[in-house]
Amino acid sequence: MNWLETLRVALRSIRANRMRSALTMLGIIIGVASVVTMIAIGSGARTKIAEQIRSLGAHVLMVLPEASSSQGVRQRAGSGQSLTEGDAAAIMAELPAVTAAAPSIRGVFQIVAGKRNWRTTVNGTTAEYFVIREWALAAGRYFTAEDTKGGERVALIGQTVAEELFPDFDSPVGQTLRIGHALVTVVGVLSEKGPTGSGRDQDDVVFLPISTVRQRLVGGSNQVNRDAVAYILAKAVSGQQLSVAEQQIAWLLRLRHDLREGQNDDFRVTNPAATMRAQTASTRVLSWLLASVASVSLVVGGISIMNIMLVSVAERRREIGLRLAVGARQKHIRMQFLTEALVLCVIGGLLGLMLGTVSTAILAYYANWPVYLSPTAMVLAMVFAGLTGLVFGYYPARKAAKSDPIECLRSE
What are the angstrom distances between the C-alpha of 311 and each of 201, 323, 341, 410? Predict the structure, then answer.
């Protein structure tokens, strides 16, 4: 018998026992669907984190003040007032491992444009901020160093603000916003960045020159340190220089803040991308762990395949004996039953692939969970389904091939 004839015999045998074959394939179907779904969930989470890392910009460090303390009660992290615009200027001017640094102050304000209004975050910063974040423009221009120096009333807005305040405009550039009692002109619209890892919308923001925010919005609200900033973003020269830049920033700020040996830092230098990469690694481990648990269904399905093939061998002893008596060799009998086991697993794998794809789509739609259905994962699931058929089908096939034709013919 050639391969094509062996396949025909296998399909004929499966059709002859449709219900038994369907129940046998159930374990393979569930196993493949579970593996595909679990890998899709893990891959989607990793893809989402990778997008968030890219949205931060390359080689970015964030410098935050330590928590403030009042009468022995510590406040939330970053509530201190130890960082200043001068610190940011010194970091950019004096540290060779840093290419840019941008101070930032922020607050939440009600913004009015014509008859529409929207409550959002207003971020006062410098032109270097957009270089560090690698934040492209959708329209207009960035504000410049001259705008910051002169305290010009210009603004850059995110996509969410543009959609909320200017839904009927082709471009908000040139339109006027009222923030508090200050009127500012929109000079640019930023491209979409998407949500952060915590779910905060990065596009729901308005950027003004930091000097404009101080003069017209927050004023001298911080009486202790009028030059204080909420945080400083810094960009290292390269990925290899990130740790060097971090050490240089810490050294410079301790020097500028007159911190003696043994005193704790009044600031923190963090690497957001490194934190997200750690999340990616843990997500990868978790997704493979879930896939491993789901693959137990494949093992259960393989055991079902072996049991049913043993039953099939017992039921078809006369057929086996007849074929051996007319000249079939052991390898032909073994190949016939291996082909049947393989076909069962491949059909079950294809059905499981369809079920996994549908369940992944449903999960993405209703649970709003990021998923990514990798073609590699789908191929691997099918390969493992086929291997399950070969591994668990080998013993029944070998038993059939080793049968004594005389005993087989005498059995009925």
Answer: 60, 18, 12, 18
With beta carbons less than 8 A apart as the criterion, state whether 189 and 138 touch. Answer: yes
DSSP, collapsed to helix, strand or coil, labels residue 85 as: helix
Task: Determine the Cα–Cα distance for residues 338 and 34; give it in Å rounded to an integer.
Answer: 25
- The answer to whether 55 and 193 have CB atoms below 8 angstroms apart is yes
- From residue 320, give the alpha-carbon distance in Å to each of 3, 325, 336, 405: 18, 9, 10, 7
Contacts of 377 (CB under 8 A, 6+ apart): 35, 36, 39, 40, 43
Q: Do residues 165 and 118 touch, judged by C-beta distance below 8 A?
A: yes
Q: Model pTM? A: 0.62
Cα distance between residue 42 and residue 24, in whole Å: 29
List the domain boundaries for the chain: 3-52+280-410, 81-265
pLDDT at 251 > cutoff 70: yes
Asked if 324 contacts 410 with a C-beta cutoff of 8 angstroms, the reply is no
Residue tagged 């006027």 (tokens): 176
Contact criterion met (CB below 8 Å) for 366 and 37: no
Ranges 70-74, 177-181, 310-314: which has the least confidence: 70-74
Nearest-angstrom CA–CA distance, 208 and 211 = 8
| The pair of three-digit structure tokens given for residue 88, joined into one six-digit string | 């940011």
Q: Say if residue 154's pLDDT is above 90.
A: yes
Sign (positive/negative) of CA torsion 271, 274, 278, 283? positive
Supply 175's token pair: 């339109």
Residues in the chain: 412
Looking only at the bridges linking them, the beta strands covering 176-179 and 116-125 are: unpaired
- 69 - beta bridge partners? 74
SS3 295: coil
Rounded distance, CA 93 to CA 70, Å? 34
Exposed, middle or buried by CB within 10 Å (0-12, 13-18, 19+), for 80? buried
Both tokens of residue 186?
């929109």
Q: Rounded to an integer, what is the distance from CA 377 to the centroid of its chain?
A: 16
pLDDT of residue 199: 66
State the residue for tokens 């839904």. 167
Question: What confidence tens digit (pLDDT) does each residue in 30-55 have?
Answer: 888 888 888 887 777 767 766 666 66
Neighbour tally for 208: CB within 10 Å = 28
69-70 and 60-65 beta bridge pairing: unpaired
- With beta carbons less than 8 A apart as the criterion, state whether 41 and 290 touch: yes
